[in-house]
Amino acid sequence: MEVYLPIILLFVLFLLNVPIAFSLIASSMVYFLFLNTSIPVSLVMQRFISSASSFPLLAIPFFIMVGSIMNYAGISRSLLAFADSIIGHKVGGLAHVNVLLSTLMGGISGSANADAAMQSKILAPEMTKRGYDLPFTAAVTAASSSISPVIPPGINLIIFALLANVSVHSMFIAGYVPAFLMASSLIFTIAIISKKRGYKPSRSEPAKAKERFHYFSKAIPALLIPFGIILGMRFGLFTPTEAGAIAVLLCAIIGGLIYRELKIVHIPLILKETIQGTSSVMFIIIGAMVFGYYMTLEQIPQNVASALIQLTDNKLMLLLLINVLLLVVGMFIEGGAAMIILTPLLLPAVLNLGVNPVHFGVIVIVNIMIGGVTPPFGSMMFTVCSILKVRMVDFVREVTPLLIALLTVLMILTYSESLVMFLPNLL
């Protein structure tokens, strides 16, 4: 039983609201200092250092910087105007624009919390001004932000590829179909709710072709960034890590020379936000790697895999059990941390039953994004509720139908490997 003490301690620390990185490190050190003293502490410290020495991890600060540059470069406003011209004339127009903007921004920001915070400040005030209930506005903003990390170059796609030792390029390509289904399900659900409540469109009539073309032409530079990254990797022009640097350069050129909103005075702010974001992510990754070292030594992933296989050797049933596990864990633990902890545990079991690791990665990432919207500890839920000053009880009431829509998509993705793998296999 003492072998599992660090895991128990980890969950206790989570429930006590100890920061994720400190929880992982503290739990690991309890094992190496008291339970397994045969390993020198110097070797454990070396593991801390080597965990951060992976070349592919350089992609993380680059893509975090991309999201920061985007906020200062006018890219988000350009995409907002384009989204409004496309779908703003529908009933509940601004709520639809909220979802479409998250989808368009996904390939650029790659962060659910960044997307949720940005739309809470830019779009949510306009929605409430147009008569949308504040809790409904918060629910749509949080639910739509779950799409962003599923579209490349989402940070979680990179992290899962590193954890599962699969191609980052394949994970990137596999994200498009799930993101499209998530966006479609939310738009369909919002349309039903908006019609019942009488929410008005954001514009009285559809935008004319000339106006749509005008906004589209302004948004082209921003929309080309994710496609340029994917095509560059596809044709071997650069690696995923180098793609991050290319994306930073493209965003800087677009913001400075095309939109002309990115100024030299923004550079210190961008660097500060990048360092803060990278530090928090890397600290969690380092803690998780050392925690994974403890689990490997005690063969816990193999034990969990064999336990799951003994429970059922049916692939479909196993995926259902894993979905339930991920959803429950995602309600209590921040999504990135849950993925880092659970992927090494669950991957051997699904691989043993012939599940494609890229397909499994999509299931895990969509799952933890839904967890980020779900009480009691969903990170996007907290972000939106704190910015918009919405009570959690009201948020839960409004977000329930949107969660049902996302869970329906999750089930489709879980049992349709051919659908998820269509684009990766095609390319």
Automatic annotation (TrEMBL):
Superkingdom, taxonomy of origin: Bacteria
Transmembrane segments: 6-34, 55-75, 134-164, 170-194, 215-237, 243-262, 274-296, 316-346, 358-382, 402-423
Entry's localization field: Cell inner membrane
Membrane topology: Multi-pass membrane protein
Alphabetized InterPro entries for the sequence: DctM (IPR010656), TRAP_DctM (IPR004681)
Principal cellular location given in the protein's record: membrane
Family: Belongs to the TRAP transporter large permease family.
Designated name of the protein: TRAP transporter large permease protein
Organism: Vibrio algarum
